[in-house]
Amino acid sequence: MFKNRAERFDAMVLEALEPIEERWGTELTELDLAVDLVPEIEQTDPDVRSWPPEVVEDMGVPLAQLVPAGVDRRGHPTRARIVLYRRPLEARSRDGVDLVELLHEALIEQVACYLGVEPGALDGGEEG
Questions:
Q1: Domain count for the chain
Q2: Of 38, 66, 107, 113, whose CB is crowded by the most CB atoms within 10 A?
Q3: Domain of 31: which CATH number?
Q4: Count of alpha carbons within 13 Å of 7, Cβ hemisphere only?
Q5: Is 8 within 8 Å of 33 (Cβ atoms)?
Q6: Would 124 be classed as within a structural domain?
Q7: Count of CB atoms within 10 A of residue 98's CB?
Q8: 1: how many CB neighbours lie within 10 A of its CB?
Q9: Dihedrals phi, psi of 55, to nearest 5 degrees
Q10: Cα distance between residue 10 and residue 87, in whole Å
């Protein structure tokens, strides 16, 4: 079956997320996952080359962001979500295997931030 680039990326996201969901699925039921082509976020202080902890970045370019639960413009509650930025992630990967590993690392960082734990707790031995 032929898949376009976006569909292949989405499949790799699910592959990278699978081991995290297997161990931590119950804790992640209120967390959504989204993919955007490129980041549309700006640094809070353009003179400082750092991002808040909820942004995973590489050389100043956001790769993923945890958006906390909140309220949208219409006053409706929103769920927390991890947004993965496809183009920056693809640009930093040599091949599909490398991309899945990078996605897994970004997801580990974001899920850890969401759960308020160290990333090693997700990838290491502690179970939820």
A1: 1
A2: 107
A3: 3.30.2010.20
A4: 4
A5: no
A6: no
A7: 11
A8: 3
A9: -115, 125
A10: 12
Residue 45: inside a domain: no
Q: How many CB atoms lie within 10 A of CB 61?
A: 15
Q: Is 21 exposed, middle or buried (0-12, 13-18, 19+ CB in 10 A)?
A: middle
pLDDT in tens, 44-74: 666 666 677 788 988 888 999 999 999 989 9
Domain range enclosing 32: 5-39+50-119
d(CA 109, CA 107): 5
Q: What is the pTM of this model?
A: 0.86
Q: What CA–CA distance (Å, rounded) separates 100 from 19?
A: 12
Tally DSSP H helices, then E strands, for the chain. 4, 6
Question: Tens digits of per-residue pLDDT, 59-114?
Answer: 888 999 999 999 989 999 999 999 999 999 999 999 999 999 999 999 999 999 99
Instruction: In whole angstroms, give the CA distance from residue 42 to residue 35.
Output: 17
